[in-house]
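Trying the structure run again after the queue cleared.
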Amino acid sequence: MRDALFVHWFEALQRRHLATLSFSELRRAVQALSSLYVERRGRIDTGTALNGLGKRAAFAVYFGPLHFLLVREIVRSLEARVPRNAAILDLGCGTGVAGAAWSLESGEPHRLVGVDRNTWVLQECRWTYEQFGLRGSVRPLEISTIHIPPNTAVIAAFTMNEVDPA
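Done. Tokens:
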């Protein structure tokens, strides 16, 4: 059942982003985004990682599913359960895949709250939650200002390497 949800989401993701880009354009964008993350990390904070349709599509269609599968396997391996009735707070949620993977692997769906500073990823996060049939909301916030409510599980899967050490 959970694998069928992943396949449904992945196919919808491809339709969503390849409606305006060719596969070749997406491939070039994946290369550009990879280069930015590996070779020019200093420019990530300037917002260039999500500049343009191609990079946003690469982030969602290529890296999103990889991140989902990685977090899912980590949760499985660690048997990281979320307490009953606890919400999952996804700090720097991006497209929402880490919180979605954790919620789905927890056995029962949890309310998700995706927090990010980028409005495009918040829209994509909301869409991801909907595709998986998860209850979730998104909030435009800097994670340095967030207050974590009680009875909340927290995930910051691919954000900590982009946070100012101070």
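The two ends are 43 Å apart (CA to CA). Worth checking whether this holds up in the mutant runs.
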